[in-house]
Structures are given as structure tokens and as C-alpha cells.
Amino acid sequence: MSSSTQFLSPLSLPLPSHTLFSSLQTHQPTYHKHTPQPTTTVITSTPLTPTQNPPKPRPESLSTASWVELLRSLTRSNRFREAISTYVDMTQAGAEPDNFAFPAVLKAATCIHDFNCGKQIHAAAVKLGYSSSSVTVANTLVNFYGNCGDIGDVFKVFERIPLKDQVSWNSIIAALCRFEDWELALEGFRLMQSEGVEPSSFTLVSVALACSNLSKRNGLRLGKQVHGYSLRVDDRKTFTNNALMAMYAKLGRLDDSKAIFELFADRDMVSWNTMISSFSQSDRFYEALVFLHDMVREGSKPDGVTISSVLPACSHLELLDMGKEIHAYALRNDELIGNSFVGSALVDMYCNCKVVESGRRVFDTISDRRLGLWNAMIAGYAQNSFNENAIMLFMEMVEVSGFFPNTTTMSSVLPACVDHEAFSDKEGIHGYVVKLGFWTDRYVQNAVMDMYSRLGKIEVSRHIFDSMEVRDIVSWNTMITAYVLCGCHENALMLIKEMQKVEEKEEEKNEDYAAERTTRPSKPNAITLMTVLPGCAALAALAKGKEIHAYAIRNALASDVAVGSALVDMYAKSGCLNLSRAVFDGMPIRNVITWNVIIMAYGMHGKGEETLEIFRTMVAEEQQRGEKVKPNEVTFIAIFAACSHSGMVNEGLNLFFRMKNDHGIEPTVDHYACVVDLLGRAGKMKEAYELVNAMPPECDKAGAWSSLLGACRIHQDVEIGEIAAKNLLQLEPNVASHYVLLSNIYSSARLWDKATEIRKTMKEMGVRKEPGCSWIEFGEEVHKFIAGDVSHPQSKELHGFLEILSERMKKEGYVPDTSCVLQNVDEEEKEILLCGHSEKLAIAFGILNTPPGTTIRVAKNLRVCNDCHVATKYISKIVWREIIVRDVRRFHHFRDGSCSCGDYW
Fold first, then answer.
1. Tell me: the pLDDT tens digits for 129-172?
2. From which domain of life does this come (predicted)?
3. Neighbours of 183 (CB within 10 A)
């Protein structure tokens, strides 16, 4: 072999004019995908060919056959660099490589991704004639270029194989899959059969992979044909079944995947891992855990892939104890506990279960920290509001460890930067990600969109959303959440409608992979539903809520604990307590949020006794069944609110003083505020005032003073009201409701000068009162009414109807409560102003636009005034309607002249 041969380019020779893939090559770009190139060649210091200096003689007893056997043995033992060094020694000793040596050394070069080394070996094979005379060598070259070269190199080698066998076709198809050219891989499969070459199990594995990456419709159609072929040829090999299972799972047919799994006995570790990871990635977490249980029961030992796949199930279900058991198993296996992927999954599990310190301990024990592990810890800090820790760890990763952040890193650290008060240049992060070249990444765009929504710049978020070329489910959910958080519930409901329209339009288009890939994720998922349902609840949009419930049932989302909890809340806040309870009773899994929602629901409807009964059931189930659902701080807030709305003072106080000893819950400022409201609403103003003063000095008393001020408004206690307001305005000078309540107290006491002075102070401070608004759903729309507003298309008709209705009510005994008008005007003008209250306009709209007997449901953003409460009782009797009004505090069910609150609210 001459020295010039060393740098020969074996692929520079002209191809035949007519090749099998010639029509397919013309559009193929040259790229090196999935092939990290080494900076130096393994054999740069020792050339493969003899130089001018003669090689040192080798022992003559080592024959060519011995060299080849040694070379093949080293390759089989995965000692690839030694194999290449042996090949060099072999050529220097004068032993000529043959059709057994070249495949061995090419495999070694392939496994260490040494492209230059492989090209030199290829040149030697060309010179000695083995690249064309030996199909085995040619096949190995196809595999080498498929792993280390580009697709053009693969085609050139493949086309020069004179007699292509089964391995040749398997190699080209596998290479095309490696380059993610799925359609060409399937075309290769078709051509293989047309050439009369019988596919093998290895062929089917590659083809199943290609099918799994097509559109769902085409993938299933072709995948079923591949499956049918495997059955016809009686291919029962484990790895074929594994590939088919993975294909069905990726195409969304988990039950078909499971059916294949259950039909064959020769399951290996890949079989189990395929099922566990597929069910976990599809959010069917309990089934993933069942597979893990069955796997262990059948004697298979979980490996790193198993652990990494099943821990997310523990994470999402917050099964901390099970996660700890898996962690203990990993600790007993050195190869698992040092695995960076296992470490990342453990960090994620602990952080999702709110045990961030344990997650950090896992992070600190792993020496081989890959980028995924850093990302998991940064995300864990950010998700648990350890914002400074997240930012500091990010800086350590970049500055100390030398890792370059990727899009996942930035998507995790962005929320921490937004929420951290000391991080002032929040919008500067936008510029930073642009400089890093990440702006076109969808995950980063979603994070920046979320950042602007949290900064209150919802219009910027919408601009980013509208400008995105490709939106995934996170994009839609982020924008919907942004609208919900800023109170734009109508926009959130409109967006989910737009989301579904986009999906419907795309389904009507062609079914090519690219189109479906960009739109398939737009289908609402559990997060979408749990995000938008509070919008339905806020607007009392019952019809829309029922539509979403039906969608959840059709798409197997109703059993999700978060969706179920949101449905319980939606029905309760829409006035349908029975439906709320029915959803609650039908939930297979309930967490503490579910229990808190149903407790709050009964409390809002003024059913104090039933609320306490549910609480006792919750505690009893925990004690009897050992469930991990324990009352938390929110549970007692809901109970105290229920007791307050029902006038159950003694019961509420008893729970307040026992909550620490009986349930381990230390009273917080919110609990004190609730109990102050409980006492104040019952007219026990002195006791309420004393409780505020008895609060620990380090407590923030704003909530308690606010509750007391609200009670003073109900009972017109000017003296204590002034004290409460004075303390509140020192703590929260920019909160409009404090000024309004004090002004209302003065107005009710006819202290007009003081009321005017408060309003003047508000104006000087730039504090604006929130206008009274009411909502009512009709058809596909939610109609909004503002006090005194005449912008609604039916305003003139509604005001006229209310005037007529007012005369009818007066004949029944109704006397307008003009004390609810807080302006110093004459009585006649006060009555006119009362007719313009938003809830009356909404009720009138409901009466005029719905059939007789239909229940009217109205939601209001403020407390119902005394006059509207009295008037609605008369209206319910006159029009023979049930009228359900939800104000900012509770529900009022008006029927036949009475209210469910018993005039205690």
C-alpha cells in the first residue's frame, strides 16, 4: 500500500448513470447528523500504510489468520481502539487484510465515530478490491457512513454493491432511519421487496420505527401492514415485538401496544421498559406503576431506563414514599446511583413532591453531572419558588462548570428571573435568549410569553403568541393561563374555542407528517381544561363548563385528579352544588385540593353543617384507610368561611383553637382573618377587634383588619371601622376597597362630609374603585353588565323592564333601600340609581331572553347590596323563577320570595 493511498477518497469515483436510488438522491442535502466528529484521528501518529522507513518485523509465527482472529476478538470485546492499533500493526507486519479483517476494523472505527480513520480503511479496501468484491465489506461500509458520514456517502457505497443481500438493504434502511428520512426508509423497504429480497426481523424493526414517525393516520395504516407481515411470516422475535409495541405507543395506540406485550412470553428488559416509558409519557401513570410491579414480580430487575421512566409517574402523582423506595433500590446498585439520567429523574421527583432539599442532596452526590441533571435541579428550584437558588445554580453551571445552556435551561431559569424581586432587568432576559440564538425555539418563546404575562403585559404575550410559526399545547395553555390570571376570562374562553377551530381546520387538510406535527399538539389536554375551567366558574358559564366536561369524558381526561377538582369547583361556582357533589363522588382519586374544593363549595352555598360533615369524612378516611390526604391550611380557611356564612360561631372557634393540637396546623394570618370575619359577621365586633390585637406581633395584620372593616360596613360600626381603616391604609395605601368600605360606612351613617373627604383622598392618591360588574351566560356568549352602563344593545329595553318590574314589586310590598346609594342625592334619583345596579340588569336580561321557568345564574364581582338582595327575592316570586346570584363572598339561591342565606351574609 503506497503512501498516496492513505488519503485516497474512495467516494470520489463516478457513479453508474442509472442507480436504484438516483431519483431519490437529487434532493438530499449533505449533512452530518447525529455524528460527533473527533478533533483528532485515532491513528494520526501511526499511518495505516507503510512509510519510507520499513516497518519493524513482527514475529513470523503470527500468521495472517492469527492477526485477523486477534482483530475480530478485540472488536467483539468492544476494545475498539486496540482493534484499530492491531490493524495498523498487522499492515506494518506485511499481513494483508481480507474480507474478515475489514468488517472488524470498520466496526471499531464506527463505534468510536472516527470518520477519518474509517475513510482510510475504506481506501485500503478499495485498493485491495474488497469494497466491490465482498458484500460483507460493502455492507459494513454502508453502516459506517450511516453512522459517521452523510446520506450522500451512504447512497454512493450502497449503489456500488453489485449483488445486494438482505444485510445491504437492512443497512441502507437503518441509515435512512438514523437520518430521520422516514419516507425514504419506507421506499427502501418497498424496493427491497421488489428486488426479491426477503425482509428480516431487523428490517421490520427499522420500518416500524419509520412508521411511528409518520402522521398518525399514515403511520397506523402502514404500521398495521408491517405488523400483519410479521404475523404472516411468523416472526415472534422479541425485538420485533418490542419495535411494534413502541410504534403503536408513539402513534397513540397504547392499548394495542399493551395487547402485543401480553401476547408474547419472551419479554426482555426492553419490553418492560417500552411499556413503562410509553404509559408514563402518555400520562397514564398508574398503569406505568402497575407494569413496574408486574416486572419485579416476574423476576426482572429494573435498570437505569426503568428507573428514569417510572420516577416521573411518582413525580406527577406525588407518591413520595414510592419514589423513596425506588431511590433506595438505586442506592443499592452502584451503576444506577451514578447514572446521570437516574439522578435527573430523582431530582425531578423530589422537587415535584416539594422536597427540594432532598433533590439537591441527590444532585450533590452525582459526580458525572450532565446538562440534563443541571436543568432538572434549576427547574426544581424555579418550580418551588427558590428563585435565587435557581439563578445562582444557573450561574454556577455556566461560569464554573463550563456548560453552555440549552433551550431547556433557559425555559427553566426564565420564570425564576421573573419572580425574583432582586432581578431588576426582567425584560433584558428576552434580549439574552435572542443573543444566545434561542429565540426561534418554541419552548423559549413559551417561557418569554409567560414572563410578559406575569409582568402584566398581556398584549406583548399575545403578540408573541400570534407571531409564532408553530404552536404546541404549551403555547396555547400559556396564553390561556395568562388570560385567566389577569382576569380576562372571556378572552380565555374565546381562545380555547379558537384552539379547537384550528385543530378542526388542520384535520381537514392533507395528512402529511409536517402538517400534523405542527397542529396535533393543539388538542386541549388536562392542563388546558384545568386552566380554562376556572374561567367558566368566574363567569358562571355553566353551558361552556358542561361542554368542557363532555370533552373531558370523551377524551378520558375526566378521571384526572386536577381536571376533576376543577370540574367540582366549576359546578359549585356555577350554582350547581348537586352536580359538583356528583363529580366529587365519582372521582377515583382525590387529593387534598379536591377535598378543599368541595368543602369550599358547600361553605359558599351556606351549608355549614354539611361542610363540617364532609370535613369529618375527610379526617375519618385518612385515619381508617391510611390515605395521605390530610387537611392543610387551605382546608381550615374553607371551613372557617363556611362557618362564617352559616353563623356557626362556636363551631368555628372550637376548630380554630384545636387545629394545631388535633391536626398539626399552625394558625396563619389567613386563619386569623377568617375568624375575625366569623366574629364580625355575627356582630361580635368587640371580640373580633380583640382577636386582631391578640395576633402575634410579627404577623401581617392586613387581612384581619380588612375582615374587621368589612364587618363594620355590615353593622355600620363607625368607631371600630375608623380604627381598622387607619391601620389598613398604613399597611396598604393603594388598595381601593379599603377607602370604599370606609366611605360606605360614613355614607350609611349619613356622614356625607367624611365620605366625600375619603373619595377626594382616593382621587388624589390615584386609587380607582373597581366598578360593580355582573355576568350572565346566554347561548354561546357571556354578557357583561356594569353598574350604570348603557352600552349593552338591550340597555334601553332592560331599564324599561326594570321600571315596570319595580312598580309590580312595590305593590307586593317592596320598599327600595336607598341607604345603599352612597351619593348625596334626592330619594327619587336614588331609586333610579338602584335600578342600574349590575346584578339587576343581568337578571332582567335573563328574564327577557330565556324561556319561562329557566333558572337564571348571575355572577357578581362585589358583594350584593341590601336593596338588590331584597329586590331579587320579590322578583323570584313575581316571575316564578329560581335566581342564583354568586357574589364575591357566597351564593344566594332566590326562590319564591326567599333566599337560601336566610338574610345572613
1. 898 889 999 999 999 999 898 888 889 989 889 889 999 999 99
2. Eukaryota
3. 15
pLDDT at 569 over 90: yes
Q: Quick check: 35 pLDDT over 70?
A: no
Q: Count the Cβ atoms, other than its own, within 10 Å of residue 237.
A: 16
Could you identify the residue written with the cell 375582615? Answer: 707
Residues 6+ apart with CB under 8 A from 858: 540, 774, 775, 776, 839, 842, 843, 846, 883, 884, 885, 886
Residue 799 Cα distances to 805, 844, 882, angstroms: 10, 8, 21
What pLDDT, on the 0 to 100 scale, is given for residue 22?
A: 43
**Neighbouring residues of 101: CB distance < 8 A, sequence distance ≥ 6:** 67, 68, 71, 72, 87, 90
Tens-digit pLDDT profile for residues 475-491: 999 999 999 888 888 88
pTM given for the model: 0.67
Distance CA 304, CA 287 (A): 19
Find the length of the chain. Answer: 905
Name the residue among 198, 147, 149, 134 with its Cα closest to residue 169. 198
The pLDDT confidence band at residue 69, using thresholds 50, 70 and 90, is very high
The pLDDT of residue 749: 85
| Paired strand residues for 782 | 777
Q: Which residue has the higher pLDDT, 433 or 57?
A: 433
Q: Which residue has the higher pLDDT, 508 or 320?
A: 320
- The C-alpha cell at 881 is 323563577
Residue 636: band (very low, low, confident or very high) from pLDDT cuts 50, 70, 90: very high
- For the stretch 306-327, pLDDT in tens is 999 999 999 888 899 999 999 9
Q: Are 249 and 274 in contact (CB under 8 A)?
A: yes
Residue 895: band (very low, low, confident or very high) from pLDDT cuts 50, 70, 90: very high
Could you give the CA distance from residue 631 to residue 801 in angstroms, rounded to a whole number? 49
Distance CA(439)–CA(435), nearest Å, equals 8
Place of cell 329595553: 797
Task: Give pairs for 847-853: CB < 8 Å, separation 24+.
Answer: 847/801, 847/875, 847/879, 847/881, 848/794, 848/797, 848/798, 848/801, 849/778, 850/778, 852/879, 852/880, 852/881, 853/880, 853/881
Sheet of strand 781-786, all strands in order from the earlier edge strand to the far edge: 781-786, 773-778, 856-860, 883-886, 891-895, 898-899
Q: Which of 561, 529, 535, 566 is nearest to 548 (CA)?
A: 529
Q: How many CA atoms within 13 Å lie on the side-chain side of 259?
A: 7
510 burial level (CB within 10 Å; 0-12, 13-18, 19+): exposed
Per residue in 666-699, pLDDT tens?
999 999 999 999 999 999 999 999 999 999 988 8
Identify which of 465, 419, 463 has the alpha carbon closest to the alpha carbon of residue 446: 465
Q: Which residues of 369-389 are buried (b: 16+ CB within 10 A; e: fewer)?
A: bebbbbbbbbbbbbbbebbeb
Q: What is the DSSP string of 389-433?
A: HHHHHHHIIIIIS-PPP-HHHHHHHHHHHHH-TT---STHHHHHH
Which residue in the block uniquely carries the three cell numbers 423506595?
A: 325
- CA 747 to CA 121: how far, in whole Å? 96
Q: CA–CA separation, 820 vs 686, rounded Å? A: 25
> 404 or 37: which carries more pLDDT confidence?
404
DSSP state of 68: H
**Cα distance between residue 600 and residue 638, in whole Å:** 5
How would you classify residue 767: left for phi > 0, otherwise alpha for psi between -120 and 50, otherwise beta?
beta
Hey, what's the cell of 52? 519510507
Q: What is the full DSSP assignment across 595-633?
A: HHHHHHHHHHTT-HHHHHHHHHHHHHHHHHH--S----H
